């Protein structure tokens, strides 16, 4: 029976960490941001609300992923 691997020692950027941080930070920052921005926009139907949340959420996810990757890359070089 092989031993379980519980720790990793990645060379360079730990992409697992980047994905986890992106997921959590997008939910934590994205949900309030979508709610706040939705108060300034007329969203008459559920379809319009869903499309708005997807558009804003995608932008938040992309920016968060870039920032998490940049942070991980900067700290991996040290």
Describe the structure.
Keywords: Membrane, Transmembrane, Transmembrane helix. This is Peptidoglycan-binding protein. The chain is an all-alpha fold. The protein has one domain. The chain contains two helices and no strands. The protein has helices spanning 15-38, 46-77. Helix 1 packs antiparallel against helix 2. It is elongated, with a radius of gyration of 17 Å. The mean pLDDT is 90.
Task: Furnish the topology, listing elements before pairings.
Elements: H1 15-38, H2 46-77
Task: Please outline what is shown here.
With 78 residues, this protein is mostly helical. It has 2 helices and no strands.
Task: State the main characteristics.
78 residues, 2 helices, mainly alpha, 0% strand
């Amino acid at each position: 029976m092989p031993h379980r691997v519980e720790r990793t020692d990645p060379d360079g950027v730990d992409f697992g960490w980047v994905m986890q941080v992106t997921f959590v930070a997008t939910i934590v920052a994205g949900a309030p941001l979508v709610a706040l921005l939705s108060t300034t926009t007329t969203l008459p139907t559920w379809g319009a609300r869903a499309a708005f949340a997807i558009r804003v959420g995608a932008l938040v996810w992309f920016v968060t992923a870039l920032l998490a990757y940049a942070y991980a890359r900067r700290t991996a070089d040290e």
